[in-house]
Write a structure and sequence with these properties.
Blueprint lengths: L20 E5 L3 H12 L3 E5 L7 H9 L3 E4 L14 E4 L4 H13 L4 E3 L12 E5 L2 E5 L6 H14 L4 H18 L5 H17 L2 H4 L4 H11 L23 E3 L2 E10 L2 E9 L4
Parallel strand pairs: 1-2, 1-4, 2-3, 4-5
Antiparallel strand pairs: 6-7, 8-9, 9-10
Length: 275
């Protein structure tokens, strides 16, 4: 039976921009959001925009970040694209935006033109960020507002300490590689199987409580003996899920821990105020 692939989508990637040079043409409201996104990715940013067009948030980024170079002027042409790795335009000039897009494509520089999807080599999605955890919801440029609504629904369904758990699992993985180095082969496959077993056997709440001593015991008692110890076996106590609350659209959201098919699950109860 032939595999079926449904086309029309985008290739979603985690683009590594650390110390890459990103040019942002424009400094208004949309540009300020772009600046925040690429600053979080540790990029080196050049902003070109007349001072009178700067959004207050853009001004604060320019004043507070050493990773931003600002030019108080309009885009000057090909000279502004020298040694640039990515271009983002956010100006209220469709013809100028398309002109910049054409220059970028001639130079093979990835470009995003705000509000003109056909002129975009990539799109910005609605993102969830919790430490190392990043989730992007993309509508392929068709409905940013719906992407934002969907993001809020997904965010409410996530464990409250997922980011911390991912960070601790990353530390465990690094320590394991130090103890059992090598790329591929039997050792690599065994490392992968053991890490999968740890992540599926432990609850996210428990993984978030890993510290140096617990990681050491987990490796000593688990990896060395080809087993996955329980939390209690490495000197820990099973985490009690914190009762946290969030307000969304006027509703109080309470997480409720339950159990289905032998595993923990998280549900959310929305308590709406009476009219």
């Amino acid at each position: 039976m032939a595999a079926t692939v449904v086309g029309g989508g985008s290739l979603l990637l985690a683009w590594q921009l650390k110390d890459k040079r990103v040019l942002i043409v424009g400094g208004g409201d949309v540009a300020s959001g772009r600046i925040e996104s690429v600053l979080a990715a540790d990029a080196l940013i050049t902003i070109i925009s007349p001072d009178e067009g700067l959004h207050p948030l853009t001004r604060r980024y320019i004043k507070s970040s050493e990773r931003i170079t600002y030019h108080d002027r309009v885009f000057a042409g090909l000279g502004d694209l020298v040694a640039v790795d990515m271009v983002l335009t956010a100006v209220d000039d469709v013809e100028k935006s398309r002109e910049i897009c054409d220059m970028c494509r001639a130079l093979r520089i990835p470009v995003n033109v705000a509000d003109i999807p056909p002129s975009c080599d990539f799109y910005f999605g609605s993102q969830i960020r919790d430490g190392p955890l990043q989730i992007m919801i993309s509508t392929n440029g068709q409905s940013p507002k719906l992407a934002n609504i969907i993001r809020k629904k997904i965010e409410l369904s996530l464990p409250f300490n997922a980011g911390e758990a991912i960070k601790k699992v990353g530390e465990l993985r690094t320590r394991l590689k130090e103890r059992a180095p090598g790329v591929g082969g039997d050792v690599g496959r065994r490392r992968m199987r053991w890490m999968v077993d740890v992540c599926t056997s432990w609850e996210i709440d428990d993984l978030a409580l890993l510290d140096d001593e617990k990681i050491r015991k987990l490796l000593d008692d688990g990896w060395e003996n080809n087993r996955v110890p329980k939390m209690e076996d490495v000197g820990g106590k099973r985490a009690q899920t914190a009762i946290s609350t969030r307000w969304m659209n006027g509703a109080l959201v309470l997480p409720v821990l339950g159990f289905l098919a032998g595993g923990a699950c998280m549900a959310f109860v929305l308590l709406r105020p009476r009219p």
